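Hello forum,

I keep getting stuck at the same step: I have a sequence, I want structure tokens, and every attempt I make locally crashes halfway through. Rather than fight my setup again tonight, could one of you with a working pipeline run this one for me? It's a single chain of 162 residues.
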Amino acid sequence: MVILSRNDPVSGLRVMKSAAHYALPIIRCTFTRGEAPWRYLKPLRANLFLSTHLSDVRSALAAGVPAAQVYPQSAHASAAHPLEVRIAFDGDAVLFSDEAEMVYQTQGLGAFQQHETDKAALPLPDGPFKPLLVAMHRLAAGRHARHAHSHRVGHRPRRPGA
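Reply #2:
Ran it on my machine without issues. Output:
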């Protein structure tokens, strides 16, 4: 996880201290001194850019980086499930290819229906966010496995040299 902020590095110290206080796994902080953050996304090899600023989201998308706008109300909605991050993915052109949608757009409904009938037994190709979903699943599975291992009945940490 990377924090990308329009703050300057001096005021960014509070951001870094806050991340440390909450034990957030931040690997890098980049402070742009007021410059648009989307220019830093490719050098940081970002897989996803989330921002409350729609103009930054649109600029990131135009630069070819998957991005989405986060609404401030999301923080309030999460109060019902404070230990979970809930993300909903659209299937078409997000998790899966937009090939069927492109057939519909370019050739119409009849061609779309025939395309789907012809390919009904074939899985859709990957979409741009499928690698992100796979990575998130791996992280969650690893976290779950570590949590289950450390909470087994009778499990005690090994002594050094034991």
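The mean pLDDT is 79. If your local run keeps crashing, start a new thread with the error log.
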